[in-house]
Amino acid sequence: MSSVENAKVHGKAARMAACAAAALALAWGGIAAAQAVVVRSTGPSAAQYPMGRKLPATASVSLKAGDHVTVIDKAGTRVLNGPGTFAVTGAVNRDQAGTMALAGLVARTGGARVRTGAVRGATSPVATPAGPDSVWYLDVTKGGTFCAADPAQIVLWRPDRTETGMGKLIGPDGASADVTWNAGNALKLWPAEALPIVDGQSYSFRNPVGRTLTIKLKVLPAVPEDAVAVAGLLAEQGCTAQLDVFANAANADGANGG
Q1: 50-53 — which CB contacts under 8 Å span 24+ positions?
Q2: Are 161 and 129 in a shared domain?
């Protein structure tokens, strides 16, 4: 390839990256205008308040009996239980701890922690948590689209860490890599050397005791630091399994707005 052609290729790549960053900036602007994001919704009104819906500060949520809607705002997460009408940013018994908890859920984690096997909140080797304690951990029990903040640090998470765990990742071209968790460890780095990360690519994960799942990876060119903006971005990208991390935090804390 000539130097002129090479310059054109690099110039096109730079323009594409700039466009992607600009699109995300516009998206964040819309997310910033919202004061809350629905991260889980069940019951008769689930279609009215679907997962990922952004709600302004002035909004009220009207629920029927049997409705359970989990929302995240800058103060933390809470579950709204119907019947009743609730202000999105209504006063509830939450303090600075809620904001700190949200920051922990979206904090970028490095490979050093994964290699040491450290797990936040791991108080019992027997207990099986409802889900990961970081939105950037890929839950291997769920398929679908996963948004990666750092393709060099994609962490595979499993719920049961009591014994050695095994699985296999398979790329679309048939290339594969074995995944092994040591006993007591819930975390494992994606085997990038054997199976490189490709944005928009779909991979299969096979577990000896579970069904084969399809995982589509989306590499985010930039990530906001605000937890509510992160939740909105994940919803817009279709990474709904990661929203469960916020919802599980609300259930674990017993946060209840209704």
Answers
A1: 51/235, 51/240, 51/243, 52/232, 52/234, 52/235, 52/236, 52/240, 52/243, 53/235
A2: yes
Strand order in the sheet with 137-139: 137-139, 155-157, 187-189
* Interval 210-242: pLDDT, tens: 789 999 999 999 899 889 999 999 999 999 999
Rounded average pLDDT over 139-162: 94
pLDDT digits (tens, 9 = 90+) for 134-146: 999 999 999 999 9
- Residue ranges in 85-202 assigned as alpha helix (H): 96-106, 111-116
- What order do you get walking across the sheet with 68-73 strand by strand? 54-55, 36-42, 68-73, 76-81
Number of structural domains in the chain? 3
- The C-alpha atoms of residue 11 and residue 24 are separated, in whole angstroms, by 20
Is residue 237 domain-resident? no
229 inside domain: no
